[in-house]
Write a structure and sequence with these properties.
By secondary structure, the protein is an alpha/beta fold. The chain has nine helices and eight strands. InterPro entries: DUF938, SAM-dependent_MTases_sf.
């Protein structure tokens, strides 16, 4: 993310306008299991075992990554959040669920800044002296509308590849509400966009265009390979690395 009105306490959230309301998390695991997990599960099942690694961007309070770890054993999960407040929330959920053996401590990654991406690379490099480690899958839920556009998605695309944090066949999955270049998919999407765009922020919040994301992907070594409609008008967008990178081994 970029900048936002700072929290009143140094221990508070760095970007309070982007936080989901507390009621969002009530029954979240059950809702997500029923509506979205069936779409994501085939991508998890296709990962190489053992030793597959997956990176989650914008992990929220850790509910999603806990669900992934509990339903798809054999994958090592790396959650992340944009500030220490979020990382603490994720780590608390992981400890409460007793899944520290498969979910790593959350890393602070503000997608606009280089420091977090470098921290991820150091985390991977520290695991082996002989092999260049990488993530086999990257995903994020309900956050693209809360980061600067187009700077945020562009930085995600480029930072995953330069130097490469992902294996040549790794995909990037983005779940959430989106729009298209000429408008909204539904009145409820338009109402949601109006609500979040009215929040105080130093950059515009709001639903982002799938078409615009596809163009950014094309410019940065990725391509939008699938757009899968899921419950309540949301989407799972599947990005793959462009042919030259996947075929040529793209890691550096």
């Amino acid at each position: 993310m970029s900048t936002d009105s700072p929290a009143s306490s140094p221990a508070g959230p760095r970007f309070p306008s982007t936080l989901a309301p507390p009621q969002y998390y009530e029954g979240l695991a059950e809702r997500f299991s029923a509506s979205v997990l069936p779409t994501l599960s085939p991508f998890f099942a296709a990962l190489p075992r053992p030793g597959a690694r997956a990176l989650e961007l914008a992990s929220g309070n850790g509910t999603h990554v806990a669900l992934y770890a509990q339903t798809h054993p054999g994958i090592e999960w790396q959650p992340s959040e944009c500030d220490d407040f979020g990382c603490r929330a994720v780590d608390e959920t992981v400890r409460r669920e007793g899944i520290e053996n498969v979910v790593q401590e959350a890393v602070r990654v503000d997608v606009i800044e280089g420091e977090g991406w470098e921290a991820l690379r150091r985390r991977l490099d520290g695991e082996s002296d002989d092999v260049k480690e990488a993530f086999d899958l990257v995903l994020g839920n309900n956050f693209i509308h809360m980061i600067p556009f187009p700077e945020g998605p562009r930085r995600i695309f480029t930072s995953l590849l330069s130097p490469s944090l992902v294996s040549p066949s790794a995909k990037l999955l983005l779940y959430g509400p989106f729009k298209h270049d000429t408008g909204f998919f539904s009145p409820s999407d338009e109402a949601f966009d109006k609500e979040i765009s009215s929040r105080p922020s130093s950059y515009p919040l709001g639903l982002r265009s799938i078409d615009g994301l596809a163009r950014l992907a094309d410019e940065t070594g990725w391509r939008l390979s699938e757009r899968i409609g899921v419950a309540k008008g949301n989407w799972v967008l599947v990005f793959e690395q462009q042919e030259g990178r996947a075929a040529g081994g793209g890691q550096s």
